[in-house]
Amino acid sequence: FRGGPISVAEYMEEVLTNPKAGFYINRDVFGAEGDFITSPEVSQMFGEMVGVWAMCLWEQMGQPNRVNLVELGPGRGTLMADLLRGASKFKNFTESLHIHLVECSPTLQKLQHHNLKCMDENNANDNVEERTISSLAGTPVSWHAALEQVPSGFPTIIVAHEFYDALPVHQFQKTTRGWCEKLVDIAEDSSLHQQLSFCCSAASGLQIKNWRSLSTLRFVQKRWS
């Protein structure tokens, strides 16, 4: 629609999170009825062990009274449900938790709300925002479309299981004319195909700068070692 090819990163973002046709947006993609399955769906022990890790980390932090437990791409909420269920007997830990789920899919948000057995508290005071509480451990739960929306200023533990492999990425290829970015374009028959940028794109220029900085750092480290 822009009149030209788009980056692989832009293409991935549209395919995964387009408001109307995004892969994750309007359906449950997990399990036998979906397209794939993840570790938390196979055994509850996975989420329970992540909970043990989170509680050990909380103790190493000095057992703060409030800690943000953030999950990126929580799927059906199975991992977080198993985590909270397993940790529910350790009240000092669970009472410090504020759960923040970073999820852009309305469909998956509803599944997470259900699987975490959430209850929406209605406050009579208009100045107090409504709170959503998971009855699994009595912990408040909030949803966010992006990580930047999670409240800052508190100790934070982040869980991101099988999340980074679905992030939009830029792809590059070294050619005789330098580093070119891989782009996605539409052919005359409406099929999609890849092509290389004709010159150094903004993304490839930034990437080359980062590579040079990294190479310099490695050289300095080697000299010091």
Automatic annotation (TrEMBL):
The keyword Iron-sulfur does not apply. Gene3D superfamilies: 3.40.50.12710. Its main location: mitochondrion. The keyword Mitochondrion applies. InterPro entries: NDUFAF7, NDUFAF7_sf, SAM-dependent_MTases_sf. Keywords: Methyltransferase, Mitochondrion, Transferase. GO terms for molecular function: protein-arginine omega-N symmetric methyltransferase activity. Its EC number is 2.1.1.320. Pfam families: Methyltransf_28. GO terms for cellular component: mitochondrion. GO terms for biological process: methylation. It catalyses: L-arginyl-[protein] + 2 S-adenosyl-L-methionine = N(omega),N(omega)'-dimethyl-L-arginyl-[protein] + 2 S-adenosyl-L-homocysteine + 2 H(+). It is found in: Mitochondrion. It is an enzyme of class 2 (transferase). Belongs to the NDUFAF7 family. Arginine methyltransferase involved in the assembly or stability of mitochondrial NADH:ubiquinone oxidoreductase complex (complex I). PANTHER family: PROTEIN ARGININE METHYLTRANSFERASE NDUFAF7, MITOCHONDRIAL. This is Protein arginine methyltransferase NDUFAF7. It comes from Citrus sinensis. The lineage of its organism: Eukaryota, Viridiplantae, Streptophyta, Embryophyta, Tracheophyta.
